[in-house]
C-alpha cells in the first residue's frame, strides 16, 4: 500500500491532519522535509509540532515472537509495574528527563523511537530557555549503531548547525567475531560526534523527523517555537483534536542539535542543513529519548572502561569492545512513571472512539460515556487496519482482553441494571445484538438501524421515543443502554434453562481426609476456619443473608456425605464406597441454609478432624469426588461451586486414576508437550458434564510431591474455576496464605451457568478464544462459573474491508445467574478506529495487552508444539512487527539503528520476560507441576496481572525518608540496581521477596527485624516482627497494601545477600541473564535487531 498517498480534503474522524500526510512539505528553512506517514490521534504517541513527545499511554508489552534468543537468556517469569523517579542517592531508571514529562492536550503525531541500538525515550516538556542537553553516541555493536549527540547549551565554536554528522554507517551485516559481533581488541565502536567537539558522548535516542522540521536559530541556545504566532509553512495546527477531547498529547519533542540522526517515515532523506540557513527553529526530534543518565551512585560504569556518561569529555582513550549501556535502552520503569505523571490525574472519559487508555500501572478514574471502561476491555490496538492485507503486513495481533465481571474501585458505579419487563431487552432481529449507544434511530424514532449488521428493525411501541434535532432520542441520557458502554439487563424466563428461573447456587466443600491431609494439620485448620467463614458467603446488594446453600463431603478412597439438616441434633454420615458408579445417597439435608443449620454444621466441623485423626489411609480418588458434587447439584436443580481440598496423586482404583509420569528427561525434546497435556480424556468428559450443570470447580492443592497438575487442573480450567497450590504445606508457614486465598475465594462475587458471546460489526469477527472456559461451538464461551478476576481473551480477524469513517464495534454479552439466583445479561460495548495507514496502527497499540495475548498464545502452543518452536514463533512475530514499522513508518536511517515505535518500545524487554518464563525456559529447580500450574494461571490473567508477573516490581525501601509513607519509586529488575547498603521489596503478583543487603545499617536491621546484626536475621523468614517504630510500620504497611492489590495472597520470603535463597530471588531480576540460559535484556535487544535487519535485507 502507498503510504505517501494524499489526504482527503477533510480529515475524517480519527484521521491524521493533512499536514502530517505524506506530501513533501517545506520545512522552516524552505527545503523539502521528509515525508511522514499520517498520524492518527493515538491516545498517546507522536509529539505535536511544538510539543515534546511522551511515551504513549499504552506502552507496554510485546507481541509474540520467538526464536532462540542469544545464548544468554535470562530466566524470570514475572511482569510488573513500577515507578521511575529516584529517591535520594538513588539511581534513576532509564534516561533521565531533566524536566518532568507532561502530556499536553492536543493531538500527537507519530512517535517512533529510534534506538541507538535500542532506545526508548521519555519526552521532556521543553522550557522556553535552552533545552536539556541531549547526546548522541553511535556505537556500532555488531553492526548496530547507537545514535545520539551531546547538545551543548550553546553550540561550541566550530560546530555550526551544519550538515548532519555522518555516522559510521553499518555494514549491514553482523561481523562474525562474536555472538552479536564485537570490535577489534582495544577499539571502541565509532562515535558520531559533531565536528570540533572531542570526547565520547552519551548515547541518545534519535527519532523520526517530523513533516514540520525546525531549523536551528542562528545564534544562542535552541528554543521551542512558540505556538501563538501564525502557522509556519508546513506546520500543522496542534490544538486539541475535536474528535478526541480525551486525548492527551505528548510533550514537545526534544530539540536536537545538528548532527543527530533522525528517523521518520519512508521518503527521501532530509536535505543537509547548512549553517547559512535563515534563522528559524531547531530540529525537532519526535519522541526523543531525553538526556542520558549519568552513572548510578554505587556503581562504576556498567562495563569496564566504558565512559561514565555525564562526566567531562576527556582525551579519547582506547576502550575494550563496547557493550550497549543498559541505561540507554527503553526503561519500563520510566515509561510507567511517565504515564502515571501524565495521565493519572485526569479521569479517563470514554466518550470518544478509539482512545488508548492509560497504562494498567496507572491509577486513574473512568467516566463511562458510551464505551466500556478499560477495566472491562483492553485491546492490543485501538486503531485497526482497514484491510486484512494491511493486518498481515503489520503482524500485530488484533485481540481484546475482556474481564466481564471486573471489580471496580469504590469511586466508580457498578453497571446499572435495566428491567424491560416481560418483553425483555431490545435486540436486532437479524444478528441478535443488544440495544447499545451506537444503534441509529430513524424514521422519527419508529425504527432503528443495527450498528453491527445494518438491519433495519421496528421499535416496539412501549420503547418508542421521539428524536431531537440531532437525530438522538430525547430520553437517551435517561437510559443506560443508550448512553453507557456497560450495563445489565434483567433476563426474562426465555433466557433460562428449561424456561424456568434458576434456584440460588450452592457451595459444596469436599475435603481430603487421607493421612497426608490429617498429618499436616490441614483438615483441622480448614474446619476451624469454615465455622466463621460461612457467615461471609456472597450476597446480593443489601441482602441480610446469603441465598447460597452449603454441603459437605469428606473423602479418601471412599466418599462420606453429611446430612446437616437443621432439625437434627447431630450430623449424620453416609459412606459411598462404590466410586466406580457414583451417586448421592441423600437429597434432603445435604444442601442447607447456613443460618438455619448453624449448630449442626458447627458440630460437624468439630467432629471431622477427630473422626479421621488416626487414619492410615494414604490413597485418594479424585474424579469420583467431582462427579459426586456435580450429581448433588443436578439433584438440587441448581448451579454452584465445588471447593476441593486435595493432597496427592489419585492412585486408588477408580475412574480418573493417574500414574506418576513426571519425566524431566523430556524437557527440550519433541515429547515435552506431553508434560502439559492431561494423562487421560476422562477429565475433559467430566468437565463437559460439569459445564452443562453449571458446576464450577475450585481446586486447592497441597502436594508434597508430583500430583500431575496438568491433569487435575483440567476440570477447574474448563469450568471457569481456579487452582491454588501450596507445595509442602506447613500450618505455621502457609496458614496465612491459604486462609487468605480461601476467604477471598469463598466471598467473591461469581456469575454461574454463564454463556458469553462477542459480536462485531461487519468486517471483522472473533476467531479464537483464550481463558478458563469450555466451548461446544465456535461462538459461545460457556462458563460454569465466572468471577471478577477471570478474563477471556478474544482474537479477531478480517472477513471484509473496514471503513475508516464508521470504525469497528465490539459487543460482549454475558448471560449469567447471580449469587441470589437472578438471571442477568451484562453488556459491554467498545468502538475502535480503523486506519489505512500503518503509522496509525503503530501509534495506537497497547504493549501490555499485546504481551498478555502473546503469552497466552504461547502457553497454549506448548500443548501441541515443541517449546523451541513456540519461542521461535514469538521472536519471529515480534521481529516482523518491528521490521514492518521500520520499513513503512520510520524515516530512512542507517541500518545500524534499531528504531522502535514509541508505544511498542517495551515490546522487546517484555517479550524477553515471556520467553524466559518457567513455562518456556525452565530452570533446573522448576518442577513439571510448577510449569503446568503457571501455564493454567496465566491463561485467565488480566493485563495488570501479566504485566507484574512477567516484569516484577522492585522497590527500594531504605532510600526515601522514613516519614514518607507513599509507595517508593521502583527500580529496574536487574542486579546492578541493587545496593548492598539497602533493602528491597520485589513482587510479581504471586511472590514477595524482601532482599537485605549485607552492608545495611545496624539501626535499620534492629528496627525491621528486632535483631542487632545482619548475621542474626533468619533467612527465609516469612513474617516480619511487629515492632513499634516508623520503619517497621512503614514496611509492613507497604506489604499489606501490595497484597491488597493482588488477587492472590503473596507469601513473604526474606532473602539475605549472598545467601542460598538469593538464587531464587535473582530468577526474578528479569533484565539479567538467567541461569536457565535466558538472554539479558541488552543481549535480547541485539538479537531482535539482528532479526529485524535480516527481515529487511
Report on the architecture of this protein.
Belongs to the SEC23/SEC24 family. SEC24 subfamily. This is Protein transport protein Sec24C isoform X2. Keywords: Cytoplasm, Cytoplasmic vesicle, Endoplasmic reticulum, ER-Golgi transport, Membrane, Metal-binding, Phosphoprotein, Protein transport, Transport, Zinc. Pfam families: Gelsolin, Sec23_BS, Sec23_helical, Sec23_trunk, zf-Sec23_Sec24. It is a peripheral membrane protein. The structure is a single chain. The protein has 21 helices and 32 strands. With 1097 residues, it is α/β, with parallel strands linked by helices. The strands form eight sheets. Strands 14, 15, 16, 17, 18, 19, 20 and 21 form an eight-stranded mixed beta sheet that branches. Strands 7, 9, 13, 22, 24, 26 and 27 form a seven-stranded mixed beta sheet that branches. Helix 13 crosses helix 16 and helix 18 packs across helix 19. It is globular. It starts with 103 loop residues before the first strand and ends with a helix. The N terminus is likely disordered.
Write a short abstract of this structure.
It comes from Balaenoptera musculus (Blue whale). The chain has 1097 residues and is of the alpha/beta class.
